[in-house]
Amino acid sequence: MGIPFFYHTDFASYDFGPSHPFQGSRFDRFMQELAERFPAVFARLDIMQPQPAGNELLELVHDRSYIDRVIALEKRRGYLSVDTQLLPGSIDAARLIVGASTAAAREALRTGLALGFGGLHHAGPDYGEGFCIFNDVAVAAAALLKDGKDRILILDTDAHQGNGTMDVFIEDPRVLFISLHQDPRTLYPGRGYADEVGEGAGKGYTVNIPMPTLSGGSMYDLALDEIVFPLIDAFKPEIIIRNGGSDPLYTDTLTNLGLTLDDLSRLMRRIAEKAKAANVPLVDLFLSGYGPYVTEGWLAILRGTLGESFELSLPEQMKFIPPEDRARIERVTRAMIEYLRANLRPYWSIF
Fold first, then answer.
1. pLDDT of 319
2. Residue 130 sits in a domain of what CATH number?
3. Is 160 one of the catalytic residues?
4. Domain coverage including residue 327
Protein backbone atom coordinates (compact mmCIF):
# COMPACT_ATOMS: atom_id res chain seq x y z
CA MET A 1 0.00 0.00 0.00
CA GLY A 2 1.03 3.58 -0.61
CA ILE A 3 1.34 6.31 1.98
CA PRO A 4 -2.12 7.76 2.70
CA PHE A 5 -2.48 11.33 1.42
CA PHE A 6 -5.82 13.05 1.96
CA TYR A 7 -6.85 15.44 -0.79
CA HIS A 8 -10.00 16.73 -2.45
CA THR A 9 -10.33 18.98 -5.50
CA ASP A 10 -12.87 21.06 -3.59
CA PHE A 11 -10.06 22.27 -1.30
CA ALA A 12 -9.69 24.89 -4.05
CA SER A 13 -12.72 26.70 -2.60
CA TYR A 14 -10.69 27.51 0.51
CA ASP A 15 -9.88 30.86 -1.01
CA PHE A 16 -9.93 34.48 0.15
CA GLY A 17 -9.93 36.29 -3.18
CA PRO A 18 -7.51 37.16 -6.01
CA SER A 19 -5.54 39.81 -4.10
CA HIS A 20 -5.23 37.77 -0.89
CA PRO A 21 -1.99 35.95 0.05
CA PHE A 22 -3.92 32.70 0.54
CA GLN A 23 -5.57 31.39 -2.62
CA GLY A 24 -7.14 28.01 -3.13
CA SER A 25 -5.31 27.26 -6.36
CA ARG A 26 -2.28 26.18 -4.31
CA PHE A 27 -3.65 22.69 -3.64
CA ASP A 28 -4.26 21.61 -7.25
CA ARG A 29 -1.04 23.30 -8.34
CA PHE A 30 0.99 21.29 -5.86
CA MET A 31 -0.61 17.99 -6.86
CA GLN A 32 -0.01 18.72 -10.53
CA GLU A 33 3.62 19.77 -9.98
CA LEU A 34 4.32 16.70 -7.86
CA ALA A 35 2.80 14.34 -10.42
CA GLU A 36 4.59 15.92 -13.40
CA ARG A 37 8.02 16.61 -11.91
CA PHE A 38 8.41 13.71 -9.50
CA PRO A 39 6.13 10.91 -10.72
CA ALA A 40 7.97 8.21 -8.74
CA VAL A 41 7.32 10.10 -5.50
CA PHE A 42 3.71 10.75 -6.50
CA ALA A 43 3.32 7.01 -7.12
CA ARG A 44 4.24 6.34 -3.48
CA LEU A 45 1.09 8.13 -2.33
CA ASP A 46 -2.32 6.58 -1.90
CA ILE A 47 -4.63 9.53 -2.60
CA MET A 48 -7.67 9.33 -0.33
CA GLN A 49 -10.77 11.51 -0.59
CA PRO A 50 -11.98 12.89 2.76
CA GLN A 51 -15.49 13.49 3.96
CA PRO A 52 -16.51 16.93 5.28
CA ALA A 53 -16.67 17.44 9.02
CA GLY A 54 -20.16 17.77 10.39
CA ASN A 55 -21.12 19.97 13.30
CA GLU A 56 -20.73 17.12 15.79
CA LEU A 57 -17.04 16.83 14.90
CA LEU A 58 -16.47 20.59 14.83
CA GLU A 59 -18.11 20.94 18.24
CA LEU A 60 -15.34 18.88 19.80
CA VAL A 61 -13.38 22.16 19.58
CA HIS A 62 -15.62 25.01 18.48
CA ASP A 63 -18.60 26.52 20.28
CA ARG A 64 -21.88 25.93 18.45
CA SER A 65 -22.57 29.66 18.60
CA TYR A 66 -19.31 30.26 16.73
CA ILE A 67 -20.21 27.72 14.03
CA ASP A 68 -23.59 29.40 13.60
CA ARG A 69 -21.92 32.81 13.35
CA VAL A 70 -19.53 31.55 10.67
CA ILE A 71 -22.44 30.22 8.61
CA ALA A 72 -24.30 33.53 8.92
CA LEU A 73 -21.22 35.55 7.97
CA GLU A 74 -20.61 33.54 4.82
CA LYS A 75 -24.08 34.39 3.54
CA ARG A 76 -23.21 38.09 3.51
CA ARG A 77 -19.48 37.73 2.72
CA GLY A 78 -18.62 38.92 6.21
CA TYR A 79 -15.29 38.95 8.01
CA LEU A 80 -14.06 36.83 10.90
CA SER A 81 -11.12 39.23 11.17
CA VAL A 82 -9.62 41.94 9.04
CA ASP A 83 -7.66 39.35 7.04
CA THR A 84 -10.25 36.56 6.90
CA GLN A 85 -13.33 37.12 4.77
CA LEU A 86 -15.86 34.33 4.34
CA LEU A 87 -16.55 33.86 0.63
CA PRO A 88 -19.10 31.44 -0.87
CA GLY A 89 -17.82 27.88 -0.62
CA SER A 90 -15.17 28.60 1.99
CA ILE A 91 -17.07 26.91 4.84
CA ASP A 92 -17.64 23.73 2.85
CA ALA A 93 -13.93 23.67 1.96
CA ALA A 94 -12.97 24.25 5.60
CA ARG A 95 -15.18 21.35 6.63
CA LEU A 96 -13.38 19.17 4.08
CA ILE A 97 -9.96 20.17 5.41
CA VAL A 98 -11.06 19.35 8.96
CA GLY A 99 -12.44 16.03 7.82
CA ALA A 100 -9.22 15.29 5.94
CA SER A 101 -6.91 16.05 8.86
CA THR A 102 -9.03 14.00 11.24
CA ALA A 103 -9.09 11.06 8.85
CA ALA A 104 -5.33 11.38 8.30
CA ALA A 105 -4.68 11.27 12.05
CA ARG A 106 -6.76 8.14 12.43
CA GLU A 107 -5.11 6.56 9.40
CA ALA A 108 -1.65 7.34 10.77
CA LEU A 109 -2.49 5.33 13.87
CA ARG A 110 -3.19 2.38 11.59
CA THR A 111 -0.34 2.73 9.07
CA GLY A 112 2.34 4.70 10.95
CA LEU A 113 2.38 7.68 8.56
CA ALA A 114 -0.27 9.74 6.81
CA LEU A 115 -0.20 13.08 5.01
CA GLY A 116 -2.60 15.85 4.17
CA PHE A 117 -3.24 19.51 3.63
CA GLY A 118 -3.90 21.07 7.02
CA GLY A 119 -2.81 23.53 9.65
CA LEU A 120 -5.61 26.06 10.22
CA HIS A 121 -4.17 26.74 13.65
CA HIS A 122 -5.32 30.33 14.27
CA ALA A 123 -8.97 29.36 14.82
CA GLY A 124 -9.91 28.97 18.47
CA PRO A 125 -13.01 27.77 20.31
CA ASP A 126 -15.02 30.89 19.55
CA TYR A 127 -12.95 32.84 17.02
CA GLY A 128 -11.37 32.62 13.60
CA GLU A 129 -8.57 34.74 12.17
CA GLY A 130 -5.32 34.56 10.25
CA PHE A 131 -6.94 32.84 7.23
CA CYS A 132 -8.33 30.11 9.53
CA ILE A 133 -12.04 29.31 9.85
CA PHE A 134 -12.06 25.98 11.71
CA ASN A 135 -9.03 24.44 13.43
CA ASP A 136 -8.43 21.09 11.73
CA VAL A 137 -5.37 20.30 13.86
CA ALA A 138 -7.24 20.77 17.13
CA VAL A 139 -10.29 18.87 15.89
CA ALA A 140 -8.11 15.93 14.80
CA ALA A 141 -6.47 15.82 18.23
CA ALA A 142 -9.83 16.15 20.01
CA ALA A 143 -11.25 13.31 17.93
CA LEU A 144 -8.36 11.07 18.96
CA LEU A 145 -8.95 12.00 22.60
CA LYS A 146 -12.58 10.99 22.16
CA ASP A 147 -11.36 7.73 20.60
CA GLY A 148 -9.48 6.99 23.81
CA LYS A 149 -5.96 8.32 23.22
CA ASP A 150 -4.50 10.33 26.08
CA ARG A 151 -0.97 11.36 25.00
CA ILE A 152 -1.05 13.42 21.83
CA LEU A 153 1.80 15.62 20.68
CA ILE A 154 1.02 18.53 18.39
CA LEU A 155 4.23 19.84 16.85
CA ASP A 156 3.57 23.13 15.09
CA THR A 157 6.46 24.31 12.88
CA ASP A 158 4.55 27.07 11.09
CA ALA A 159 6.35 30.41 11.15
CA HIS A 160 3.28 31.87 12.86
CA GLN A 161 2.51 30.63 16.36
CA GLY A 162 -0.57 28.39 16.62
CA ASN A 163 -2.61 30.53 19.00
CA GLY A 164 -5.91 28.79 18.27
CA THR A 165 -4.54 25.32 18.95
CA MET A 166 -2.85 26.60 22.09
CA ASP A 167 -6.10 28.09 23.40
CA VAL A 168 -8.02 24.85 22.79
CA PHE A 169 -5.64 22.69 24.83
CA ILE A 170 -4.04 25.18 27.20
CA GLU A 171 -5.48 23.39 30.28
CA ASP A 172 -5.28 19.82 28.96
CA PRO A 173 -2.27 17.69 30.00
CA ARG A 174 -3.27 14.97 27.55
CA VAL A 175 -2.07 17.17 24.68
CA LEU A 176 1.50 18.40 24.57
CA PHE A 177 1.52 21.42 22.28
CA ILE A 178 4.94 22.51 20.99
CA SER A 179 5.23 25.47 18.66
CA LEU A 180 8.41 26.52 16.82
CA HIS A 181 7.69 29.95 15.39
CA GLN A 182 9.12 33.37 14.63
CA ASP A 183 9.62 35.64 17.63
CA PRO A 184 6.11 36.99 18.37
CA ARG A 185 7.53 40.50 18.84
CA THR A 186 8.12 40.51 15.08
CA LEU A 187 5.17 38.59 13.64
CA TYR A 188 1.43 37.87 13.88
CA PRO A 189 -0.28 36.66 16.07
CA GLY A 190 1.97 38.26 18.72
CA ARG A 191 1.64 35.28 21.03
CA GLY A 192 3.82 32.31 21.90
CA TYR A 193 6.43 33.67 24.28
CA ALA A 194 8.69 31.26 26.12
CA ASP A 195 6.93 31.94 29.43
CA GLU A 196 3.54 30.85 28.06
CA VAL A 197 3.58 27.26 29.33
CA GLY A 198 -0.08 26.42 29.86
CA GLU A 199 -2.71 26.96 32.54
CA GLY A 200 -4.29 24.92 35.32
CA ALA A 201 -3.77 21.19 34.91
CA GLY A 202 -2.11 21.91 31.57
CA LYS A 203 0.84 23.84 32.99
CA GLY A 204 4.01 22.56 31.38
CA TYR A 205 2.14 21.08 28.40
CA THR A 206 2.29 24.21 26.27
CA VAL A 207 5.79 24.79 24.95
CA ASN A 208 6.51 27.87 22.87
CA ILE A 209 9.89 28.14 21.14
CA PRO A 210 10.13 31.67 19.67
CA MET A 211 12.90 31.65 17.07
CA PRO A 212 14.83 34.84 16.26
CA THR A 213 14.49 36.27 12.78
CA LEU A 214 16.94 34.75 10.28
CA SER A 215 17.44 31.75 12.55
CA GLY A 216 18.25 29.35 9.76
CA GLY A 217 18.43 25.58 9.92
CA SER A 218 21.20 25.24 12.48
CA MET A 219 19.18 27.01 15.15
CA TYR A 220 16.22 24.74 14.41
CA ASP A 221 18.53 21.77 14.96
CA LEU A 222 19.43 23.25 18.33
CA ALA A 223 15.77 23.65 19.30
CA LEU A 224 15.02 20.06 18.31
CA ASP A 225 17.96 18.66 20.25
CA GLU A 226 17.54 20.78 23.37
CA ILE A 227 13.75 20.96 23.71
CA VAL A 228 11.62 19.00 21.25
CA PHE A 229 13.29 15.59 21.19
CA PRO A 230 13.81 15.37 24.98
CA LEU A 231 10.11 16.15 25.41
CA ILE A 232 9.15 13.43 22.95
CA ASP A 233 11.22 10.95 24.93
CA ALA A 234 9.70 12.05 28.23
CA PHE A 235 6.07 12.41 27.12
CA LYS A 236 6.01 9.21 25.03
CA PRO A 237 3.19 10.34 22.73
CA GLU A 238 0.82 7.89 21.10
CA ILE A 239 0.88 10.02 17.94
CA ILE A 240 2.59 13.15 16.62
CA ILE A 241 0.50 15.63 14.66
CA ARG A 242 2.92 17.94 12.87
CA ASN A 243 1.59 20.96 11.06
CA GLY A 244 3.25 23.83 9.25
CA GLY A 245 3.87 24.87 5.67
CA SER A 246 6.53 26.65 3.67
CA ASP A 247 6.51 29.97 5.50
CA PRO A 248 9.82 29.46 7.37
CA LEU A 249 11.54 29.79 3.95
CA TYR A 250 13.73 32.81 3.29
CA THR A 251 11.59 33.63 0.23
CA ASP A 252 8.31 33.87 2.16
CA THR A 253 6.67 37.26 1.77
CA LEU A 254 5.12 37.43 5.27
CA THR A 255 7.87 36.01 7.48
CA ASN A 256 11.61 36.28 8.10
CA LEU A 257 13.04 33.04 9.47
CA GLY A 258 15.62 32.42 6.78
CA LEU A 259 15.34 28.67 6.17
CA THR A 260 16.51 27.22 2.86
CA LEU A 261 14.75 24.39 1.05
CA ASP A 262 17.38 22.02 2.39
CA ASP A 263 16.86 23.38 5.92
CA LEU A 264 13.12 22.77 5.65
CA SER A 265 13.63 19.24 4.35
CA ARG A 266 16.13 18.50 7.10
CA LEU A 267 13.69 19.72 9.76
CA MET A 268 10.97 17.42 8.44
CA ARG A 269 13.37 14.51 7.97
CA ARG A 270 14.63 14.76 11.53
CA ILE A 271 11.07 14.84 12.91
CA ALA A 272 10.01 11.85 10.79
CA GLU A 273 13.12 9.90 11.77
CA LYS A 274 12.55 10.67 15.45
CA ALA A 275 8.94 9.49 15.20
CA LYS A 276 10.01 6.29 13.48
CA ALA A 277 12.81 5.60 15.96
CA ALA A 278 10.39 6.10 18.86
CA ASN A 279 7.76 3.94 17.11
CA VAL A 280 5.28 6.82 17.19
CA PRO A 281 2.77 7.29 14.34
CA LEU A 282 3.13 10.59 12.49
CA VAL A 283 0.55 12.61 10.63
CA ASP A 284 2.15 15.39 8.61
CA LEU A 285 0.02 18.37 7.55
CA PHE A 286 1.04 21.37 5.44
CA LEU A 287 -1.03 24.22 4.08
CA SER A 288 0.57 27.61 4.79
CA GLY A 289 3.15 29.62 2.89
CA TYR A 290 3.07 32.92 1.05
CA GLY A 291 4.66 34.30 -2.08
CA PRO A 292 5.66 32.64 -5.36
CA TYR A 293 7.44 29.54 -4.02
CA VAL A 294 4.85 27.82 -1.85
CA THR A 295 4.90 24.69 -4.01
CA GLU A 296 8.69 24.39 -3.74
CA GLY A 297 8.42 24.67 0.03
CA TRP A 298 5.75 22.00 0.19
CA LEU A 299 7.88 19.74 -2.01
CA ALA A 300 10.75 20.30 0.43
CA ILE A 301 8.48 19.25 3.29
CA LEU A 302 7.40 16.13 1.45
CA ARG A 303 11.00 15.34 0.50
CA GLY A 304 12.05 15.45 4.14
CA THR A 305 9.10 13.56 5.58
CA LEU A 306 9.39 10.75 3.03
CA GLY A 307 13.19 10.61 3.13
CA GLU A 308 13.48 11.41 -0.58
CA SER A 309 16.47 13.09 -2.24
CA PHE A 310 15.13 14.79 -5.37
CA GLU A 311 16.62 18.17 -6.32
CA LEU A 312 14.89 21.47 -5.59
CA SER A 313 16.05 25.05 -6.03
CA LEU A 314 14.84 28.63 -5.76
CA PRO A 315 15.70 31.42 -8.23
CA GLU A 316 16.08 34.04 -5.49
CA GLN A 317 19.42 34.28 -3.72
CA MET A 318 19.40 34.28 0.05
CA LYS A 319 20.55 37.48 1.70
CA PHE A 320 24.12 37.30 2.99
CA ILE A 321 24.30 37.29 6.78
CA PRO A 322 27.68 38.43 8.21
CA PRO A 323 29.40 36.08 10.68
CA GLU A 324 28.95 38.53 13.53
CA ASP A 325 25.19 38.55 12.93
CA ARG A 326 25.15 34.77 12.81
CA ALA A 327 26.97 34.69 16.14
CA ARG A 328 24.45 37.11 17.64
CA ILE A 329 21.52 35.00 16.40
CA GLU A 330 23.06 31.93 18.02
CA ARG A 331 23.56 33.77 21.32
CA VAL A 332 19.95 34.95 21.31
CA THR A 333 18.67 31.47 20.46
CA ARG A 334 20.71 29.79 23.20
CA ALA A 335 19.53 32.37 25.73
CA MET A 336 15.92 31.78 24.70
CA ILE A 337 16.33 28.03 25.06
CA GLU A 338 17.84 28.37 28.53
CA TYR A 339 15.02 30.67 29.58
CA LEU A 340 12.47 28.19 28.22
CA ARG A 341 14.14 25.28 30.00
CA ALA A 342 13.94 27.22 33.26
CA ASN A 343 10.22 27.84 32.69
CA LEU A 344 9.61 24.15 32.00
CA ARG A 345 11.80 22.80 34.80
CA PRO A 346 9.01 22.80 37.44
CA TYR A 347 7.01 20.44 35.20
CA TRP A 348 9.67 18.32 33.46
CA SER A 349 12.57 16.72 35.33
CA ILE A 350 14.54 16.44 32.08
CA PHE A 351 15.22 20.18 32.23
1. 87
2. 3.40.800.20
3. no
4. 3-344
pLDDT band at 115 (very low <50, low <70, confident <90, very high): very high
| Distance between CA atoms of residues 80 and 117, nearest Å | 22
Is the C-alpha dihedral spanning 294, 299, 300, 304 positive or negative?
positive
> Do 252 and 290 form a contact (C-beta atoms < 8 A)?
yes
For residue 206, give Cα distances in angstroms to 30, 152, 172, 261. 32, 12, 9, 28
CB–CB of 240/278 below 8 Å? no
Counted domains in the chain: 1
In what helix (H) or strand (E) does residue 136 lie, and over which residues does it extend? helix 136-146
Cα–Cα distance between 347 and 351 in angstroms, integer? 9
Residue from 8, 62, 121, 122 carrying the catalytic annotation: 122
pLDDT in tens, 331-342: 999 999 999 999
Question: pLDDT digits over 218-256, tens only?
Answer: 999 999 999 999 999 999 999 999 999 999 999 999 999
Res. 202 pLDDT band, cuts 50 70 90: very high
For residue 350, being part of any structural domain is answered with no
49 in a structural domain: yes
Is residue 349 situated within a structural domain?
Answer: no
Decide if 179 is inside a domain.
Answer: yes
The mean per-residue pLDDT over the stretch 147-155 comes to 98
